[in-house]
Specification:
There is one protein chain. By secondary structure, this protein is an alpha/beta fold. It has two domains: 124 residues, Response regulator (Rossmann fold); 96 residues, predicted glycosyltransferase like domains (Thrombin, subunit H). 32% of the residues lie in helices and 29% in strands. The chain is built from six helices and twelve strands. The longest helix has 22 residues. The radius of gyration is 21 Å and the shape is elongated. It starts with a strand and ends in a 14-residue tail after the last helix.
Length: 238
Amino acid sequence: MNLESLLLSADPEVERVLRPTLEKMAIDVEICRDARHGSEILLSSKFDAVIVDCDDMKGGMEVLQGLRNIPSNRNSVAFAILNGTSTQQAFGMGVNFVLQKPMSPLNATRCFNAALNFMLRERRRYFRHPIKTQVHIVLADRQLKATSSNVSEGGMAIMLRDALPKGATPTLKFTLPGIKAGFEVEAEVAWCDLKGSAGFRFKNVHPASQQILEQWLADQLEKDLPGSGDRPSAGEPS
């Protein structure tokens, strides 16, 4: 499972430099040469990085300006490719990193190496790891047994055998593979369907438990990402 990026540019030289640079870092790149189409893609798909040719693609600047208003990509790492616009102006629009034209493979590699930990952090934030583990749903008057289908930093999807009372705010008890201590977390129902599945949003998680959960998920993500052993860790020079 590679990191995923969207490149909005109609400049063949940008594609020539960036495609091999990103592929060497196990970052998949989807290329869109039209700003309007790019906006549509951003509304329907989630990307770890969004790279926009601001000055040499009609409508590129507008895409970048509206990026933080798109729920699915509000926190994506944003790159501006500049050919006239000032770096200060780009950062003022919420850009995280800037690439100046003409680009070289060396400069592009340095930029994306510097950005890699930010991209991994964003991936971890919404990463959902598929897992089947027994979950005890503790209500005020009873306790239900269920099975999880995935878990993230902020919640868990569960297959239920019994219907939950409306407005339920149960406590979830569960364990994770390789973790000795069990988790006991307050939760609220985020969604449910007619097939017996429900999504729970964690509430008031103890900081120590949250740290253990985040580290466990980070370990699972690292196993899924190709070449993760060669990636620089936080604070490590690229």
